[in-house]
Write a structure and sequence with these properties.
The chain is of the alpha+beta class. It has one domain. Strands 3-4-11-12 form a four-stranded mixed sheet. A three-stranded antiparallel sheet has the order 1-5-2. The protein has a three-stranded antiparallel sheet with strand order 8-10-9. α1 packs antiparallel against α6. The termini are far apart.
């Protein structure tokens, strides 16, 4: 496996036209089924979000899709924990919750395990209440790029064309316009680059935090943080 820096150069060299060709060949149209925004059984919705995307969502204007005001606080009252939670992988159960060290953030979920920004209208059609500010992983689903260091959501790919992988989604196989395919391709390339830049920064900044019992530490590209997004500060 080549180093992350080489994968990053490959990501930067990706052709928008080639990515769009692959997306057109596979086909896609969002049916607004909500499957990519909701939990499945006992599995919570888990989607990686970058630190700067968390801050954008903190301040994002949200739509009242379902007419009851939604579960997300207004932007004036929203904080880091309303948007993101520590990625659960690597954490263990403690009597008061989770503990340990983990890498990166996942979008916050509600009591049903669905994304906190997901809502359904009166007809049961799904929508993101912060659609204009949704993270790159949401903008590009159900596609990913087959480069080491990039995330592959929702398990194994169900279709692939070149370096483009498609993951389980009922909207696959539907006609997509060239314009929409190119928009998706641009977002997909940007996401691949951002994921690799993030992975490299996390690797370079990482120092074991040795969490106290019942404590969670999250490592991202900006350093070690507490679950509320504040920097972890240890006595010298």
């Amino acid at each position: 496996m080549q180093p992350l820096e080489a994968e990053l150069e490959d990501a930067r060299a990706l052709s928008i036209d080639a990515l769009a060709d692959a997306i057109e060949s596979i086909g896609f149209e969002c049916t607004r089924c909500g499957a990519c925004c909701t939990g499945h059984g006992e599995e919570e919705h888990t989607a990686t979000v970058f630190p700067d995307e968390v801050r954008s969502l903190e301040a994002a204007e949200t739509a009242d899709v379902d007419g009851d005001g939604g579960d997300v606080p207004d932007a004036s009252e929203r904080d880091w924990r309303d948007v993101a939670r520590p990625m659960p992988y690597g954490l263990t159960e403690h009597e008061d919750g989770l503990e340990g060290e983990t890498f990166e953030w996942a979008l916050q979920t509600d009591g049903c395990g669905d994304c906190a920004f997901y809502a359904e209208d009166e007809d049961g059609t799904g929508a993101c209440v912060a659609h204009e500010d949704r993270p790159l992983i949401c903008r590009t689903y159900p596609f990913s790029v087959a480069l080491a260091g990039t995330s592959q959501p929702m398990g194994e790919a169900v279709d692939e064309e070149g370096v483009v992988r498609a993951h389980e989604c009922e909207g696959l196989g539907r006609n997509i316009s060239r314009e929409d395919a190119e928009d998706l391709a641009r977002a997909l390339k940007e996401r691949a680059i951002r994921e690799l830049e993030e992975a490299i920064a996390v690797r370079d900044a990482y120092e074991p935090a040795d969490p106290d019992p019942g404590e969670v530490v999250v490592h991202d590209s900006e350093g070690a943080k507490r679950p509320d997004g504040s920097p972890l500060e240890r006595p010298k």
